[in-house]
Amino acid sequence: MTADAVAPPAFNWRRFLAVAGPGIVVMLADTDAGSVITAAQSGAQWGYSLLLLQIVLIPILYVVQELTVRLGAVTGKGHAALIKQHFGAGWAWFSVATLIVTCLGALLTEFAGLAGVGNLMGVPAPVTLALVVVAMLAMALMHGYATVERIAIGVGAFELVFLLVAMLAHPGLAEMASGAASIPFADPKYLLLASANIGAVIMPWMVFFQQSSIVEKGLTVRDLGSARLDTAIGAVATQMIMAAVLIATAATLGKAGADHALDTVGDIVGAITPFLGNFAGKLLFCLGMIGASTVAAIVVTLTAARTLAEVLGAKHKLEDEPREAPWFYGSYALALVVCAVVVGSGLNLVSLSVGVQVMNALLLPIVLGFLFLLARRIPGPFRLQGGYAIVSGAIILVTVVFGVYSGVAGLWG
């Protein structure tokens, strides 16, 4: 049966609960360690000036990820496979190469975040990283996407504690409103963090992961309504978390009356604990960082391994045995071990996080360009066309131009 012959059924909550997962998982992963650090640094350096950007990014994030849902459900193929089919192996390898760079960069920040939490709890970084690598290898060997999805959602839910952190910081509504309206576009340092925030929200690996997950979960065009709602809920949730981290640091550091540079996880905890209490501040932030880092580490490692195997034409599903999918499991394990060793050598988490997010923003033309072009090639009524194509194209274009411009201006400034 072709896509043209199938119309999505009326929305059903029971069906939604069966379909939901890929959108929520990828959005929880979106608020990863790098994103949390970027939001915290934004609040520390610029108060509420970057708060409005977090709200504006909600519909942009939804538009981008909805296109991946559409591609996966209609074609039944992953993103790399579609690029290879429509644009050739050369472009497929180019897109995969850039993806792997962003995945490894993200994985470094996740591991650095987890190592930082371990240090706060008195656990040496090598021990923390070894435990994380072993746990993630064991999870992959459970042979089932559904199991991994449940684990990711369960762990990622810890990020919601950042909402509590923001409330306990008692931000002033009038101060938030006036601060959000104050946008210093001419300042290169502001533009650099604006670019980092865009790169922290619109990440290349999100496109590849959600589309592959839609395919691996077996969703079709009949599930589009539920999958879209899954994505919308995730988009709102992830940006609420980003805004909460920014608000918490802006409120607490503003009360401290000083301009702080946050260089480590300890610095961030130290900035908020005087106002939340030492125990509560440390516990809440560490829980949130563990959730953010762990769910993102799962997602980016799976994305890199899946996509590499996909473009090679090899098996790449969690249901496959390691001997059946050596490329998938081999690259998955290699990424974990290499990044753990690098992080164990010692890294500046904040500098790394902001740098990775700016890199994501600079790569947006490649990722979003292919996404838009592929959505225009979907068969039948699900093709991106008409007024929505114009709106989507305009949103993507503005996001790409501003992300690249602010990143370049910030770096050169």
What does this structure look like?
There is one protein chain. The chain is mostly helical and 413 residues long. It has a single domain (17-412), classed as Amino acid/polyamine transporter I, CATH 1.20.1740. It contains 19 helices and no strands. It has helices at residues 13-19, 22-30, 33-46, 51-75, 79-87, 89-120, 125-140, 145-156, 161-168, 173-181, 188-201, 204-216, 224-256, 265-276, 278-312, 326-344, 349-362, 364-375, 386-412. The radius of gyration is 20 Å and the shape is globular. The N and C termini lie far apart (55 Å). Residues 1-5 have low confidence and may be disordered.
Summarize this entry quickly.
The protein is an all-alpha fold and 413 residues long.
Structural class: mainly alpha
E-strand count: 0
Shape: globular
Low-pLDDT windows of residues: 1-5
